[in-house]
Amino acid sequence: VLAEKGNHRHFMEKEIHEQPEVMGRTVSHYVDAFENSVHEIAGLDFRAASRLIIVGCGTAAYAGEISRYWFGSLARLAVEVDIASEFRYRDPVFLPGDIALFISQSGETADTLEAMRLAAAAGVQTLALVNTPHSTIAREASLVVPTLAGPEIGVASTKAFTSQLSALACLAVLAGRHRGHLDRAQEAGHVASLLASPGLMVKALEREGEIEQLAHEIAGHPTVLYLGRNQNFPLALEAALKLKEISYIHAEGYAAGELKHGPIALIEEGLPVIVIAPHDALFDKTRSSIQQVASRGAHVIAITDPEGARALEGEAARIITLPKGSQLTNPLLFASAVQLLAYHVAVYKGTDVDQPRNLAKSVTVE
Ligand code: G6P
């Protein structure tokens, strides 16, 4: 692959900054920007679907987890998400009307490929959300839905993730229309928000300087917790994965509502707790989690939007304020902040950002 770092120190940094462009490219592939509608996709019909099964590994699986909230609320479509290595060995149940979606940047991940073969053998329609058009998963799927992220070189996935989310958001809107749960105006609203996401992402990335400062604060800690609710819960898992992968700091993501069922026991003076807290429908619940951990001494870093920042003033030790997004665009915008945080912790610690120890870009053997 011919790829250059340009002015960036690492491919990962370059790829983080390419996100506005690749999100725009991916969304443009799926939508009509004049009608503010999602294009039909030949061979894909969510009307009669009884369930959507989503399978992937690592970051791709987390993109699937986030989209479960969208398919549920926009299309009333039941979604089951699994990591490929579990799915393929648990003798999965397939039901009439199932559609199975396999998410993979490389299109070559062994477990994801085998999971897809299993679904195909059961007679289930297989969709592949892939970034590599000539990959094995793309070739064998009944239908390919592409992400248009371009080659991703950094082992830790960034722009492939946000491209997957962009495409999944479009598919959820399509499913919502197919299933009669989104009217014309609602569809237009969602599509308009997706079309606005690259511009908002540019603004989100402008927080890099502040995030770099915070990265220096947490780089010396042995453990970091990430909390989020609803669609921000899988994003918290992805955030923790990013930090682990490249900085080798132990990190855990938790659903904020689970705090009292264990993780709160870990809170001690100075423990960094990073809370993904957009001012959404569940903001007050997230805010109360912030109060609970802060009162036990946690060093709370809240990632929020302008309205959330006003509410959290004096409650979180640090606040990163991103632009206000929508239900569909918030996870994309908030992803950029957690990517930059992991990136700058790793740079500060001097790890090999693009080639972290023991990890491979694509896991083609079990
Ligand atoms: C490896 C990579 C991850 C990636 C995962 C799935 O673990 O390091 O960045 O998320 O594989 O890869 P895929 O190509 O299937 O998306």
Secondary-structure map with pairings?
Layout: H1 11-17, H2 19-30, E1 31-32, E2 37-38, E3 51-56, H3 58-75, E4 79-83, H4 84-87, E5 98-104, H5 110-121, E6 125-130, H6 136-140, E7 143-146, H7 159-178, H8 184-205, H9 208-218, E8 223-228, H10 232-247, E9 250-255, E10 272-276, H11 283-294, E11 299-304, H12 306-312, E12 318-321, H13 330-349
Parallel strand pairs: 3-4, 3-5, 5-6, 6-7, 8-9, 8-10, 10-11, 11-12
Antiparallel strand pairs: 1-2
Helix pairs in contact: 2-7, 2-8, 3-7, 3-10, 7-8, 8-13, 9-13, 10-13
In short, what is this structure?
The protein is of the alpha/beta class and 366 residues long. It contains 13 helices and 12 strands. The structure holds 6-O-phosphono-alpha-D-glucopyranose.
Describe this structure in words.
This protein has 366 residues and is α/β, with parallel strands linked by helices. Helix content is 45%, strand content 16%. It has 13 helices and twelve strands. The chain has helices spanning 11-17, 19-30, 58-75, 84-87, 110-121, 136-140, 159-178, 184-205, 208-218, 232-247, 283-294, 306-312, 330-349, and strands at 31-32, 37-38, 51-56, 79-83, 98-104, 125-130, 143-146, 223-228, 250-255, 272-276, 299-304, 318-321. A five-stranded parallel beta sheet has the order 4-3-5-6-7, with helices on both faces. Strand 6, helix 6 (136-140) and strand 7 form a beta-alpha-beta unit. The chain is globular and about 55 Å long. The model has no long low-confidence stretch (mean pLDDT 97). The structure holds 6-O-phosphono-alpha-D-glucopyranose. Residues 57-60, 104-106, 109, 112, 155-157, 359, 361-363 line the site of 6-O-phosphono-alpha-D-glucopyranose. Residues 57-60, 104-106, 109, 112, 155-157, 359, 361-363 line the site of 6-O-phosphono-alpha-D-glucopyranose (G6P). Catalyzes the first step in hexosamine metabolism, converting fructose-6P into glucosamine-6P using glutamine as a nitrogen source. This is Glutamine--fructose-6-phosphate aminotransferase [isomerizing]. Keywords: Aminotransferase, Cytoplasm, Glutamine amidotransferase, Repeat, Transferase. Homodimer. The active site is at residue 361.
